[in-house]
């Protein structure tokens, strides 16, 4: 991990951009973080495009940092300045064509779009976690929040260092990922926008039902994809306070 820039905000949150191999990322740490007082870490997922998503990511991170968490994010494969995948672009075009025609995307289209992303992104998140936990001011435990829900499911299955997750039900989910969800046993808070124009609501409910966690909570709010109420950020902080502190 190589840090490339840093700035400190007036709330004493330090923001540092980094490169891990070829993957760019951002780390926010509260002013209270130090080698003598390391803080828990939240991995902040997003749908891709760090620069496009920066304002929302920074707001989420600083809100969490105010409660004593470090927050880190990395760019998704094929997003931002990372090399694009012709296969993913075709699958995305096929999905948009189906939606424009008022049709449900086929399982094949969803698989072609989501599964290669999960297979590449999850090892990158784990490598980032390796590097972040070497920093003396970060001590764990670790939570995961937001982003592509299929990535969050796979991480929750394969990464034992993640103790709890807040998942956003806002993307299409392959049936194989629904089956994987039965292996997820960490505490979960799942956010669902009831009128999300790009979300298969029934699939989101089926996925929630499939999770094997004994503690799982679903918050469903009216509104579209970007209409998640601000108070859900406070609820997420309380959820992580129960499981990361």
Main attributes of the structure:
alpha/beta; 25% strand; Rossmann fold; 9-stranded mixed beta sheet; 9 strands
Description of the molecule:
By secondary structure, the protein is of the alpha/beta class. The chain has one domain: Alpha/Beta hydrolase fold, catalytic domain (Rossmann fold, 3-Layer(aba) Sandwich), CATH 3.40.50.1820. It has seven helices and nine strands. The chain has helices at 50-65, 86-100, 107-132, 149-158, 175-180, 201-210, 231-244, and strands spanning 2-8, 14-20, 23-29, 39-45, 70-74, 138-146, 162-169, 188-193, 216-221. A nine-stranded mixed β-sheet has the order 1-2-3-5-4-6-7-8-9, with helices on both faces. It is globular, with a radius of gyration of 17 Å. The relative contact order is 0.13. The mean pLDDT is 92.
Quick overview:
The protein is α/β, with parallel strands linked by helices and 245 residues long. It is 40% helix and 25% strand.
| Computed CA radius of gyration, to the nearest angstrom | 17 Å
Name the CATH superfamily assignment: Alpha/Beta hydrolase fold, catalytic domain
- The total number of structural domains is 1
**SSE run:** EEEEHEHHEHEHEHEH
Mean pLDDT: 92
User: Which CATH architecture?
Assistant: 3-Layer(aba) Sandwich
Q: Regarding CATH, which class?
A: Alpha Beta
Indicate the proportion of strand residues: 25-35%
């Amino acid at each position: 991990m190589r840090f490339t820039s840093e700035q400190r905000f007036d709330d004493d949150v330090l923001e540092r951009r980094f490169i891990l191999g070829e993957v760019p990322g951002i780390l926010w740490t509260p002013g209270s973080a130090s080698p003598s007082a390391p803080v828990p870490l939240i991995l902040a997922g997003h749908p891709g495009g760090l620069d496009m998503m920066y304002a929302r990511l920074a707001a989420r991170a600083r809100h969490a940092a105010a409660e004593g968490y470090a927050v880190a994010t990395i760019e998704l494969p094929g997003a931002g300045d990372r090399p694009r995948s012709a296969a993913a672009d075709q699958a995305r075009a096929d999905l948009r064509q189906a939606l424009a025609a008022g049709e449900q995307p086929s399982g094949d289209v969803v698989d072609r779009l989501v599964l290669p992303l999960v297979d590449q992104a999850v090892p990158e998140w784990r490598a980032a976690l390796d590097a972040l936990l070497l920093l003396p001011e970060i001590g764990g435990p670790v939570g995961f929040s937001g982003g592509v829900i299929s990535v969050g499911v796979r991480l929750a299955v394969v990464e034992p260092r993640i103790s709890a997750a807040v998942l956003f039900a806002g993307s299409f989910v392959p049936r194989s990922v629904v089956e994987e969800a039965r292996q997820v046993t960490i505490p979960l808070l799942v956010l669902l926008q009831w009128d999300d124009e790009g979300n298969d609501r029934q699939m989101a409910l089926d996925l929630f039902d499939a999770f094997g966690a004994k503690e799982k909570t679903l918050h469903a709010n009216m509104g579209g994809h970007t209409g998640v109420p601000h108070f859900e950020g406070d609820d997420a902080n309380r959820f992580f306070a129960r499981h990361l502190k």
